[in-house]
Amino acid sequence: MGFVDGARLEIAGSVDEAYLVTFVDAGTDAVVHSGEIRTNHWICTARQYFTAWRVDVRRLRDDALVFSQRYRSRGRRIYVAVESKALGDTLAWFPAIEAFRRRHGCHLVCSTFMNDLFRRTHPAIEFVEPGTTVDDLYAMYRVGWFYLPDGRIDFDRNVHDFRRQPLAESAYDILGLPYVETRPRLERSVAPRPYDEPYVCIGVHATAQAKYWNHPDGWSGVVGFLRDSGYRVVLLSREGAEYMGNRAPAGVTVLPPGPIGEVVRHLQHAAMFIGVGSGLAWLAWAVGCRTCVISGFSLPHSEMTDCIRVFPEQPVCAGCFNTHRLDPAVWNWCPEHRDSPRMFECTRAIAPEQVIDAIRAEL
């Protein structure tokens, strides 16, 4: 009996018998799956997200209950794997993993593609690299956004339509927890502030053109306002000043490539972070920097609520991230208006004055 990627039971023995195996969600008393098997066969559920299982086995020839077991996690080894490599996904989902460990009192094993962000602040968790074989497990859960081959959401691995929820909520669903927006605990830099004068960090780049702020004068207008207000403007970016035809505005300080700890240090001491809906926005929010997210690609509920959220004011096509599956192989992905005059109109409609009005009172 085990709960790795679903509930699974095998009946071993030398006497050939037929049994009815029933997998019950003990929280609702609903039968999720049942089936008949014989000795030396196994059966499992398609459902893989957390369920407080009760598994009953009845011998068919006399309907005798010969086995019944409930899910009991306290003190057990349970493995939670974050399936996404994205910084934003990892930061949004990790608090649910720590909440699961606390609620269940289990020995938690965890893999993310960014273990070093959490290792020192979560000593009670055993971190392993993705793909590592982990033995002696009682249960395992995978946190991510999962689709079927035909493009539909896999509701055996995701509880709800994750596109209609805040990004972080899908992890709480998978792990069977009530959703509470929570910042992850990260190791904070003890190094001094990088500049004597006040400064604001910006993040202009993203992993698809649809995520960019596509107003032609957007960033230059905001950077001009910040500089006139007495702030140095610091560009945080692995991509540098130019990427895929997108240039950073003039007059900014470009932080050279380096360890993520240096990015954290800059964000800790910044007056604000202003950026698109990317991992940098999630990192800024995680370290407690006041965060402004500019996006028409995603609807405002998609990101954290404790932020300044700028969304197109006029009626334009927006929120395709919440209605379509992003194709990361297509840089100019715009599912409704690609190669038309309306392509990326969601962020082209966000004028610099709208962002300036949103951030003015917060600086």
Instruction: Enter the CATH topology name of the largest domain.
Output: Rossmann fold
SSE-based structural type: alpha/beta
Q: How many angstroms separate the termini?
A: 57 Å
Q: What is the approximate shape?
A: elongated
State the helix count. 7
CATH architecture of the largest domain: 3-Layer(aba) Sandwich
| Poorly predicted residue ranges | none
- Looking at CATH, the homologous superfamily of the largest domain is Glycogen Phosphorylase B
Mind telling me the C-alpha Rg? 24 Å
Spatial order of the strands forming the largest sheet: 16-13-12-17-18-19
**Strand residue percentage:** 15-25%
Q: Give a count of the beta strands, DSSP E runs of length 2 or more.
A: 19
Question: What is the total domain count?
Answer: 3
Instruction: List the secondary-structure elements in sequence, H or E.
Output: EEEEEEEEHEEEHEHEEEEHEHEEHH
- What portion of residues is helical? 10-25%
Question: For the record, what CATH class of the largest domain applies?
Answer: Alpha Beta
Note the main sheet. 6 strands, parallel
Mean pLDDT: 96
Question: How does this structure look, described?
Answer:
Strands 16-13-12-17-18-19 form a six-stranded parallel beta sheet, sandwiched between helices. The protein has helices spanning 87-104, 169-174, 218-228, 260-269, 279-286, 345-348, 352-360; strands spanning 3-4, 8-11, 18-25, 30-38, 41-44, 53-59, 64-70, 77-82, 107-111, 126-127, 139-143, 199-203, 232-235, 242-243, 246-247, 253-254, 273-276, 291-294, 308-310. Helix 1 packs across helix 5. Strand 3 and strand 4 form a beta hairpin. The protein is an alpha/beta fold. It has seven helices and 19 strands. It folds into three domains: 3-70, Immunoglobulin-like; 77-174, no CATH class; 199-360, Glycogen Phosphorylase B (Rossmann fold). The mean pLDDT is 96.
